[in-house]
Amino acid sequence: MLRCTIVILALTAVACGRRAADQPAAGRSDTVPPAAWQVADSALPLGPEDFLVAGLTSQTDDTTAVRARLGSPDSVTVDAGGRGVTWHYRDLVVSFGGSATGLGFTLTGPGVATARGLRVGDAAERVLALYGEPYVRDEDAWTYVASDSGGDVNAIEVQLRGRRVVSIAFAVWVD
Asked: For the chain, which domains are there?
């Protein structure tokens, strides 16, 4: 799951005016293959399409839509306060409620890829090739942050172990 510090850093970025919308526009066509994307400084900023996972967006909050797209979960957990529910699938965890609004996604296996083609098991160099330098870079967690014009903060956290991706988490917070 995304750590509390990511929320604070992401919200600080918005408050300080560091927003993806303020960066120079870079067009991205769906016909451009991931291999054509440049490394690091020239990586494209995060856009709404980067938060599409398994055909769902973080704005979806309807369990019926999730079930229609992914089927019944393998298991379900409810947090201690009863505010958040988590559905577990092979290679994917879908979280409803909790600290994020809408859906939160965590890719836990190679069977599900990000919109740019990143998968659990990929090398750290591939993360850099697809997403560039992270907004926050810890030894074992790289965080990419984007905010939309409405004030929502979207974050992708890539967890690494031994220079390999072990999970990829997506979340959105409303300003």
From this structure: 1-15+68-175 (3.40.1000)
Rounded CA-CA distance 18/92 in Å is: 30
| Tokens encoding 126 | 């591939």
Angle at 136 between CA 77 and CA 87, to 5 degrees: 15
Contact 126, 118 (CB under 8 A): yes
**What is the per-residue pLDDT for 151?**
63
| Burial class of residue 147, CB neighbours in 10 A (0-12, 13-18, 19+) | buried
Give CA–CA dist 110/108, Å, rounded: 7
Backbone φ, ψ for residue 8 (5° rounding): -65, -45
Sequence-ordered alpha helix ranges (H) in 31-123: 63-70
Which secondary-structure segment (H or E) carries 104? strand 103-107
What's the CA gap between 99 and 84, in Å, rounded?
Answer: 8
> What number of other Cβ atoms are within 10 A of residue 103's Cβ?
25
Question: How far is it, in rounded angstroms, from Cα 170 to Cα 103?
Answer: 9
CB 98 within 8 Å of CB 83: yes
The CA-CA-CA angle for residues 30, 33, 34, to 5°, reads 110
Q: Mean pLDDT per 10-residue run, the chain (175 residues)?
A: 38 34 32 37 76 82 86 92 88 80 86 96 96 92 79 86 96 64
